[in-house]
Amino acid sequence: MPSITDVKCILVIGSTAGIGRALALNILALPTKPTVIVAGRRQQRLDEIIKAENKDDRLRAVRFDVNADRATLKKSVDEVVKQYPELDAVMFASGVQQEFDFTKPESVDLDKIAEELNTNYTSVVNMTTFFLPHFIQLSSSGRPSFIYAITSSLSIVSGPWVPCYCASKAALRSFCQSIHVALKDKNVHVVEILPPLVESELHDHQGKREALSKTWMPLDDFTEKTMAGLRSGAAEIPIGQAETYHKQFETGKLEAVAKQYEQRKAAEKGN
């Protein structure tokens, strides 16, 4: 399978901080010298990254809001593709995590749940749909294209303190497995990254950074392991605790998805 070293131009959505920023800068540092487009809502953060890291004009920035309405989201995708026709990869790194206590249902904020589901899952499905015509056309010429999605170890084993986050990441994981199989013959390669608990701003609003810092994986360690997985061309890259869970509960699952898909195609062809 082709790998990150085949990427010529990648858009990293959600790269103003944390995992997204770290991976964007490490991809920028690859010897293959890809163009890396950082994207996020906060223009000041984007400007800071460009000022600090744009050493040879291969780092670009676009403002991108994954929670925009569908028409605006499509317009944003279309503008990126028009400006960067060589774009052959997108990484979805945006994410939000909220704690909810369903033993106290009166405390559950349904608006926050809707935002969490949209950020972590629905918007990714929408953007994937909008990017795919470009990727399929590009790949038809023989160039591979790539969709990278960041899920979580919690997509395999849920954490009851963040139930909707787990559900959104489990939905994204299932979606990635399905389109990985469906798009394989189109030369569009879908790769899932499964982090454990990682040092990140994701948890800052929860007020538990100090407590979590005692058990999380340092961002540098996570990034190093993830880049190794990306260079290997693996379809799934579970890191740390996610790797343990994956071996215990997910071994052979992607192959089972592929088998089921082929059986369905064969049955349809028989009709």
TrEMBL record:
Record flagged with keyword Transport: no
Record-linked Pfam families: adh_short
One term of GO molecular function: oxidoreductase activity
Ranges annotated as spanning the membrane: none
Top-level taxonomic group: Eukaryota
Record keyword RNA-binding present: no
Keyword terms, alphabetized: NADP, Oxidoreductase
Similarity comment text for this entry: Belongs to the short-chain dehydrogenases/reductases (SDR) family.
Protein name listed in UniProt: NAD(P)-binding protein
Organism: Coniophora puteana (strain RWD-64-598) (Brown rot fungus)
